[in-house]
Amino acid sequence: MTYEHERRIAELAVQRACLLTKKVFHEKAKGTLAKDDKSPVTKGDFGAQALIIQAIAKNFPNDEIVAEEESSELRQDAALRAEIWDLVKDIKLNDAASDEVIGGSLANEEAMLAVIDQGKSLGGATGRIWALDPIDGTKGFLRGGQYAVCLALIVDGDVKVGVIGCPNLPIDDSEALTTNIGSEQSDEEGKGVLFSVVQGEGAVSRPLTNAGLAPSKPISMRPVPDVSQAVFCEGVEAAHSNQDDNASVAKRLGITAPSVRLDSQAKYCSIARGAGDIYLRLPMKKDYQEKIWDHAAGDLLVREAGGQVTDIYGKRLDFTKGRTLKDNKGVVAAPAALQDQVIDAVQAVLNLK
Ligand SMILES: Nc1ncnc2c1ncn2[C@@H]1O[C@H](COP(=O)(O)O)[C@@H](OP(=O)(O)O)[C@H]1O
Ligand SMILES: [Mg+2]
Ligand SMILES: [Mg+2]
Ligand SMILES: [Mg+2]
Q1: Does the pLDDT value for residue 184 go beyond 60?
Q2: Biological process GO terms, please (predicted)?
Q3: Is the CB of 285 inside a 6 Å radius of any atom of ligand 1?
């Protein structure tokens, strides 16, 4: 089947990177730095980016990579660099055959920095481009909440493959519906899900493991007979989406259930498996451009699970414009049958018509 090799490499690479992020999640000192835009980055983000790019570069040396992080801060911080290298050099899948296809040890710290910087592609409308968010929801990761390791392959502007590792999501889909997963702590027993999707082949999930890939099962959005019965998801960080506007949209749709708040693309994953139905990300700042690595994998996952994903104008997310979604504003994802109704409510609340 098409893109089966890409899917497998991406799944194994994300699964291995999750071993590293889980290790850092349990450490008190996560090596947090503030980037130029004041947002945090940790040892986990840098380490996961190195491991995943290494796997892509080994298997698909001609592909481009648009990744969130870069190494300049690390080049000036020998201590942090050494700590990250300590993690990266030791992380392996506990299954030799699986580790082999994504492995091949990096030689040293310098090789690690070089690999991190292979994620500087400018993106665009042509060719094979991977979009990588080594930790999405870094603030959730630091808070002890949800986060996700996200990787997508975009070919000529179209998302073909998406893989998302969510170490802190419950494995059981129905438990996710009844638990307040937004405030759930830690990644103990019963947690950790790997989602994946190939265009035209549907979306699947499987438990994350520390070795080879576990058996997968198909996932889909749940039917919602009446929009007022829908559960909506939104981010925890009030600066990333307008929670007041999100609430006004829900009210307009007759939704009375409280929102499920969780960080990262775990929101796309949750609605794709029927743990929630609608994802609202209404803009806070007029000029903010969403990043492609924050949405590419989740966009395809939800669409293949029976949903639609658009911006606040009802326009599909456009991954051809470079590193950002500069022609889109906000994100609205819902079961296909409800999307028009939800967009109508969004536009009424935002005075767009
Ligand atoms: N003003 C803003 N509006 C929307 N998204 C923003 C934002 N500032 C940062 N972000 C993005 O929000 C992502 C997290 O989304 P969420 O709030 O849904 O968990 C961050 O990803 P990272 O954590 O990978 O940096 C970051 O890229
Ligand atoms: Mg970030
Ligand atoms: Mg992100
Ligand atoms: Mg990130």
Answers
A1: no
A2: inositol phosphate metabolic process; phosphatidylinositol phosphate biosynthetic process; sulfate assimilation; tRNA decay
A3: yes
4-219 in CATH: which number?
Answer: 3.30.540.10
Residue 277 annotated as catalytic: no
pLDDT tens, residue by residue, 200-256: 999 999 999 999 999 999 999 999 999 999 999 999 999 999 999 999 999 999 999
Distance 125 CA to ligand 2 centre (A): 24
Convert the pLDDT of each residue in 74-107 to its tens digit. 999 999 999 999 999 999 999 999 999 998 789 9
Contact 231, 115 (CB under 8 A): no
Strands 128-136 and 64-67: parallel
Phi-psi region of 145 (alpha: psi -120 to 50; beta: other; left: phi over 0): beta
Which of 166, 291, 317, 332, when mutated, tests ligand 1's pocket best, judged by the most ligand atoms within 8 Å of its CB?
A: 291
Q: Are 218 and 202 in contact (CB under 8 A)?
A: yes
For CATH 3.40.190.80, the residue range(s) in the chain are 227-349
Q: In which residue ranges of the chain is CATH 3.30.540.10 found?
A: 4-219
Q: Is the CB of 240 under 6 A from ligand 1?
A: yes
Q: What is this structure's pTM?
A: 0.97
* CB 291 less than 6 A from any atom of ligand 1: yes
138 in active site: yes
| CATH class entry, domain 227-349 | alpha beta
